[in-house]
Amino acid sequence: MNKSPINIVILIIVLFFFSLFFFLAARSGGEIGSNLIITQTLSAPNISIVSQYTDTPIIPTSTSTAISTPLDTLTPSATATPEYFEVLIIGHSVMDQPLEVYRFGNGERAYMIIAGIHGGYEWNTVELAYELIDLLSKEPERVPQNKTLYILPNLNPDGYETDKGPDGRANANTVDINRNWDANWQANWYGKNCWSYRFITAGTGPESEPETQALRDFLIEMNIEAVISYHSAAGSIFSGGYPYDEVSINLANQLAKASSYKFPPNYGDCLYTGQFIDWASVQGIPSVDIELRNHVDTDYLINVSILEAFLKWESPTD
After folding, report:
1. Whole-number Å distance between alpha carbons of 287 and 277
2. If you count DSSP H runs as helices and E runs as strands, how many of each does the chain have, helices first?
């Protein structure tokens, strides 16, 4: 049966209005969705983005070039807050390499750790110092509020770069920096237990070397109150003083209790002249020489315990 023209027109009009209705509904739904997204965005927490660039000093990479152990590539990996951290250049070596000191804390009592006095021959002491720097960079709260800790990781960078063995013990002037201090200084020393693998001198006179002079001036200027000097490899602790310093002995005893290192040590028959810890003792600075167990390992865990005991230690004369 044929549909009348009127019915066809009506059908077309109905279809047109249905199409228009669905079109408007679709547009309304899109706007509702957009409005929901905007509402969620405005009500979300305000998260601030921290820039990757800061004014905080970045701890430089260790300058180690040895390839005998992965520790030679150790680099401190963290930055610390400005109130806890600072890098100081206190002088330069014979070959004009900077002598860097890392500062942690801002207390009135200043303590110091020194490593690398015998350069590449005792390179593991340098690596230990950088490990401790890395630890304190991540956990600066380890330093008590009344203390400031300075760490000099490498007093003999020239020897350190020369050789990771006997040829790296002296500085660039062939001087043993640990025989160059104005404390019972002598041009020559004796004893079959003294180090004698290479020709080495005590310098042209007491404190003749730029490395010695830089550390001397810093210790006095900063009023350092206690010192650890790291060496290897006797697995022992030596107290400063010639012949004896009771406060240095007290410090050595406390650090020995916190470690497996032996105290008192076996001194043998070596004549110890011009030593750094003896000079420090003369200045009224309690001091110890801590000898790692060998020339490879850093004894890290042992020395984390020593670090804790050192920072807690107070002179019995205070």
Report:
1. 6
2. 7, 7
For residues 215 and 168, give the distance between their C-alpha atoms in angstroms, rounded to a whole number. 20
CA angle centred on 262, ends 260 and 266, rounded to 5°: 155
**In whole angstroms, what is the distance from residue 132 CA to residue 111 CA?**
14
What count of other Cβ atoms lies within 10 Å of the Cβ of residue 96? 10
* CB atoms near residue 90 (< 10 Å): 20
Kindly calculate the radius of gyration of the chain based on its CA atoms and give it in whole angstroms.
34
**How far, in whole angstroms, is CA 26 from its chain's centroid?**
65
Q: What is the mean pLDDT of the chain?
A: 82
Sign of CA dihedral 232, 235, 240, 243: negative
State yes or no: pLDDT of 287 exceeds 50. yes
What's the half-sphere exposure (Cβ side, CA atoms, 13 Å) at 163? 11
Whether the Cβ atoms of residue 177 and residue 154 lie closer than 8 Å to each other:
no
Query: Is pLDDT above 70 for 60?
Result: no
* Alpha helices, DSSP H, located in 117-264: 123-138, 157-162, 210-221, 246-257
- The pLDDT of residue 190 is above 50: yes
312 phi and psi angles, rounded to 5 deg: -90, -20
- Tell me the pTM: 0.76
Ranges of beta strands (E only) in the chain are 85-92, 98-104, 109-114, 147-152, 226-232, 237-239, 287-292
Token readout for 195 is 């180090």
Predicted local distance difference test score (pLDDT) of residue 108:
96
Mention every residue, 6+ apart, whose C-beta is less than 8 A from residue 238: 252, 265, 267, 277, 288, 289, 291
Cis peptide before 45 (omega within 30 of 0): no
